[in-house]
Amino acid sequence: MTELQPGDLATDSRGVLWFVHGYREFGLHLTSRTGTFAPLDDVARLYGPLTLLHRPAEAAELGDRGQPHTAP
């Protein structure tokens, strides 16, 4: 499992989509599309490892229009 970080979107073994938020120092939490809120460790324990679907680009990686930079 890729280490998740705030802002990531991930799915569990059932295919449920989760939004990752919080601070590493205090523990990451997940919120599902239906509003279910739970600590990351509890979701992973109950539903298996989470799979990273999307990680937002860092601001430094974005161009003027919010698109990723391309190599010249």
Structure description:
This protein is mostly beta strands and 72 residues long. The protein contains one helix and five strands. A five-stranded antiparallel sheet has the order 4-3-2-1-5. A hairpin with a 5-residue loop joins strand 1 and strand 2 (17-23). The longest helix is centred in the middle third of the chain and has 8 residues, at 40-47. The protein starts with 8 loop residues before the first strand and ends in an 18-residue tail after the last strand.
Outline:
The protein has 72 residues and is mainly beta. 11% of the residues lie in helices and 32% in strands. A hairpin with a 3-residue loop joins strand 2 and strand 3.
Question: What's the arrangement of secondary structure elements?
Answer:
Layout: E1 9-11, E2 17-23, E3 27-32, E4 37-39, H1 40-47, E5 51-54
Antiparallel strand pairs: 1-2, 1-5, 2-3, 3-4
Task: List the keywords.
72 residues; mainly beta; 5-stranded antiparallel sheet; 1 helix; 11% helix; 32% strand
- Tell me about the largest β-sheet: 5 strands, antiparallel
The low-pLDDT segments are none
Beta-strand share of residues: 25-35%
Mean pLDDT: 85
| Count of helical regions | 1
